[in-house]
Design brief:
Helices cover 37% and strands 20% of the residues. With 330 residues, it is α+β, with helices and mostly antiparallel strands. It starts with 5 loop residues before the first helix and ends with a helix. The radius of gyration is 25 Å and the shape is elongated. The relative contact order is 0.09. It contains twelve helices and 14 strands. It has a seven-stranded mixed beta sheet with strand order 1-2-3-4-5-6-7, with helices on both faces. The protein has a five-stranded mixed beta sheet with strand order 11-12-14-10-13. The protein folds into three domains: 115 residues; 76 residues, Arc Repressor Mutant, subunit A; 109 residues, no CATH class.
Length: 330
């Protein structure tokens, strides 16, 4: 009986290439027994190149990307041809690591990574996953942005991550870790008694991968009268963008405050609310996380700025935002 992945594989490759591949079953008695039990081998000419497909015959829980790479190397060396692993499923964090290590794979109907031939890494979640959260929580987003532009939070104990951020408990960081894993943003490794975050990619690659799950930090906007605007509020919105680019600022400056500070300022009379911009002297954004944690100057960080303005209808804003990201020191 052929491997159950064969038919889905043929249909999937046909949708990608427009041609139906011909598969020829191969026997390899010289292979180690565990590999013969794990994979069924087929010879195929795919995208103009002859390769061996290793269809996973059994689903073993806990196979790591490093183990898959070892399997691929042993098969390629023993059989003298490039090998493509055909797998029933692959978590996002494992997929990222496989891509990083250059291990060719296909998950029929879902993803394909065959260097120099085809790359199809779009997520196609089954119906049962539709309830999965589509965006990160504010705590997770802050942690990720902190890692990208302020100081790495991987490869250190989770309690040290909490201490470095200074606003979340170790228990909350554990929840952030679970959220990252569920979103495919990172995996975890064990070091003694400690759990460590392990991002498959870093810098710009991590930003681009996570960006669809990131949201604007702005929860609400208030017009206020404010005699001495400035720190601890940070310039935000068009005011921050005008400081970093050639675009002009709005008539009223925009500032960002953390989740609960504006209410406190209103109660103490530091600022007073206005019904509209005509009577106001400033525009205040209330954020879902503390903007000062991501910035070391009078303006908000560039990544949060991008997220807060990326839905703008002004094409000039989008052009400046793209330039802003290009200038980030990853």
């Amino acid at each position: 009986m052929p491997n159950p992945l064969v038919s889905p594989f043929v249909g999937y490759i046909e949708t990608l290439s427009g041609e139906q591949p011909d598969l020829v079953r191969q026997l390899a008695p010289s292979l180690p027994l565990y590999l013969r039990e794990q994979y069924e081998l087929y010879l195929v000419r795919l995208f103009g190149r002859e390769s061996l497909l290793a269809f996973q015959g059994k689903t073993f829980e806990g196979i790591t990307p490093v183990e898959y790479r070892k399997h691929e190397e042993i098969l390629s060396h023993a059989l003298g041809k490039p090998v493509i692993l055909v797998l029933p499923a692959l978590p996002s964090f494992a997929r990222n690591r496989m891509v990083q290590m250059g291990v060719p794979f296909v998950v029929p109907g879902n993803q394909a990574f065959i260097p120099a031939s085809v790359i199809d890494l779009r997520e196609r979640f089954p119906r049962g996953d539709r309830g999965k959260r589509e965006s990160l929580t504010p705590a997770a987003q802050l942690t990720l942005l902190f890692h990208l532009i302020r100081g790495r939070v991987d490869q250190i104990p989770l309690k040290d991550v909490a201490q470095r951020l200074g606003v979340y408990s170790p228990m909350m960081i554990t929840k952030v870790k679970d959220e990252f894993e569920a979103a495919g943003i990172c995996s975890t490794t064990q070091s003694g008694r400690h759990m460590l975050l392990d991002f498959a990619v870093q810098g710009r690659e991590l930003w681009e991968f996570a960006k669809p799950q990131l949201t604007s930090p702005v929860k609400k906007v208030r017009w206020v009268r404010w005699e001495n605007p400035g720190y601890p509020a940070l310039l935000s919105g068009m005011s921050a963008l005008s400081r970093r680019t050639m675009i002009a600022d709005d008539r009223l400056s925009t500032y960002a405050l953390g989740p609960r500070m504006l209410e406190s300022w209103l109660e103490k009379g530091f600022v007073s609310g206005c019904p509209d911009s005509e009577q106001a002297t400033a525009r205040i954004e209330v954020w879902s996380y503390e903007p000062k944690l991501l910035s070391n100057n009078e303006s908000i960080d560039p990544l949060s700025l991008y997220l807060s303005l990326r839905d703008s209808a002004d094409e000039r804003v989008h052009q400046q935002l793209e330039q802003l990201i290009e200038e980030v020191q990853w």
